[in-house]
Write a structure and sequence with these properties.
The chain is α/β, with parallel strands linked by helices and about 525 residues long. It is built from 19 helices and 17 strands. The N and C termini lie far apart (about 60 Å). InterPro entries: LRR_dom_sf.
Length: about 525
């Protein structure tokens, strides 16, 4: 677009040249604040073109842009048990209003319609001035739609079009099947989809009719690459039907609900799938509940390309459950590099109740492609120093290892539990580690180091354990200085507890670890000299 100069005629030639390059002007506009963009929008017609393009491209609120179409106001609305304000037009828009509004609407790429309390008459008024065959937002690529009102959900199709690629929907469960049907019909080239049921907690059971209405439509999104679903919307028996999404690379179904699965098992018979369809062809990232892998689906859950897996467990999960999962992954996932195990709803239980044992860890470390293993539980792993020495050579391929770094000891520690000497074992066998966290260290002084101890050459972060009592921060800092590289840092992971009692118990340990970190950082010049000496 040719720009009318927004400056005097005597401006420098370089300044004039700048305004002649539309791409450069557009790039500059993308870095301005909304206030500056509003100012640019009134400079000249040419500059306004680029300023408005940046201003209305992303993060546009439907409630805000609606005010451009016609004046709006809030109208009090009463229902049997509540009163709230709804947005409505002061007057119905006319064709001239649409001509003005369309200059802004055609620039919108990303739109949010969140907490919509809008009188449905607004949608009818918009439809009355929208020219036949015209889309409300023709260039819309990303849409967030959150509403608790079924009558508002019914007008979702007004925002849908061929350009749409990324959609997040949250609405009443009963409204979701129709919403997804409209989405598939109007925006079949969708790449990313997140579906949530609002006003429903994680343990709720959604009716089988709703789930049956959703699944056939999901299978129709053949270009879908990312799918995230509310935990109660996808029963375990329905998961194999998602195999028919040939481009699906990311699937998030966490936390997972099993209660619906039994009532739907007859409706989703995976035996109707061809053998060639019984696989996630492109799936690389899976987040799910442990029960998805243990209820019969796991045996057929084939994902030859999977790279990242996050599994949510509850405190009642057993050592046998974890060993089953590890063997399943070892035997079926040849490209798996990241495994994260999270025990949700932390409860302080006796240390000997932990299902994390040497046997379980051996099974996970048997995954040849594994590079990152993280297990997050408030119970310390049932692992002795001798067992760690046996496991350490199997960890040599890992770049990230965190074993219950946020553990809280609830009872006496075993004398042969992990201690500061365990770091020497890992430094000797795991030179590639860049992140490490272990819990629980026995509250003993760090051991004496030999003249040239093994060193973590690439370690960047050591996650500290809240439960370890530090008697002498300076001695611990000196010990760590000799094992860690100059760029390493000590980090306290966020606590998983909020109770005053737990916080009081942790306070002294946290204070001591912060003192260790302060002394450790102060010794960085010495660490640099030691690293240079080691290199030479």
């Amino acid at each position: 677009m040719a720009l009318s100069y927004p400056m005097p005629y005597h401006a420098s030639s370089s300044a004039q040249a700048f305004w002649q390059v539309g791409e450069l002007v557009a790039e500059v506009m993308d870095h301005l604040s909304p206030t500056d963009l509003y100012a640019c929008a009134v400079v000249s017609k040419g500059v306004s073109h680029y300023a408005l393009g940046s201003l209305y491209r992303a993060d546009v609120s439907f409630q805000d842009i609606l005010k451009i179409l016609a004046p709006v106001h809030l109208v009090s609305t009463r229902q049997p048990i509540l009163k709230f304000d709804e947005m409505n037009f002061l007057r119905s828009p006319v064709s001239d209003d649409w001509d003005h509004f369309s200059q802004y609407a055609r620039r919108v790429r990303s739109l949010s319609c969140i907490s919509l309390r809008i009188n449905v008459q607004i949608f009818l008024d918009i439809s009355s001035v929208l020219p036949a065959g015209t889309l409300l937002f023709p260039q819309l690529h990303s849409l967030e739609w959150y509403s608790t009102f079924p009558d508002v959900m019914a007008h979702l199709d007004l925002f849908l079009g061929d350009a749409l690629r990324d959609v997040t929907i949250s609405g009443p469960p009963a409204s979701l099947p129709a919403a997804l049907e409209a989405l598939w019909r109007r925006s079949p080239a969708l790449r990313r989809l997140s579906v949530h049921a609002n006003s429903v907690d994680e343990d709720a059971v959604i009716s089988a009719a709703v789930v049956r209405g959703i699944m056939p439509t999901l299978k129709a999104f053949q270009r879908l690459e990312h799918l995230q679903m509310h935990p109660s919307l996808v029963p375990a028996a329905a998961v194999p039907f998602l195999y028919r999404l040939p481009r699906l690379t990311t699937l998030h179904l966490r936390p997972y609900l099993l209660m619906t699965a039994s009532s739907l098992s007859n409706s989703y018979d995976s035996s109707t799938l061809d053998a060639s369809e019984n696989v996630f062809q492109c799936l690389k990232d899976l987040v799910c509940d442990v029960r998805l892998l243990l209820t019969g689906v796991g045996a057929s859950l084939s994902a030859p390309s999977i790279q990242k897996l996050q599994v949510a467990l509850n405190p009642t999960s057993t050592e046998a459950d974890l060993d089953t999962i590890a063997r399943l992954l070892r035997d079926n996932c040849n490209t798996l590099t990241h495994v994260t195990i999270v025990f949700e709803r932390p409860i302080l239980l006796p240390p000997d109740s932990s299902p994390i044992t040497s046997t379980v860890l051996k099974s996970f470390l048997g995954i040849q492609s594994l590079r990152c293993l993280s297990i997050d539980d408030v119970r310390p792993a049932r692992l002795t120093c001798a067992e760690l020495e046996e496991l350490a050579p199997m960890c040599s391929r890992l770049s990230f290892l965190v074993l219950c770094a946020r553990a809280r000891l609830n009872g006496p520690a075993s004398p042969d539990s992990l201690n500061f000497g365990s770091l020497i074992t890992l430094a000797q066998h795991c030179p590639s580690l860049s992140g490490l966290g272990l819990g629980h260290f026995v509250a003993t002084p760090p051991p004496d180091l030999q003249a040239n101890p093994p060193v973590f050459r690439w370690l960047r972060t050591l996650y500290m354990d809240y439960s370890t009592k530090i008697e002498d921060p300076a001695a611990v800092a000196v010990y760590l200085r000799r094992l860690l590289p100059p760029d390493a840092r000590l980090e306290l992971p966020p606590s998983r507890f909020r109770s005053a009692t737990t916080t009081a118990v942790e306070a002294a340990n946290i204070k001591a670890w912060k003192e260790v970190s302060r002394i450790f950082d102060a010794m960085k010049p010495l660490r640099n000299i030691a690293a240079l000496h080691l290199k030479n």
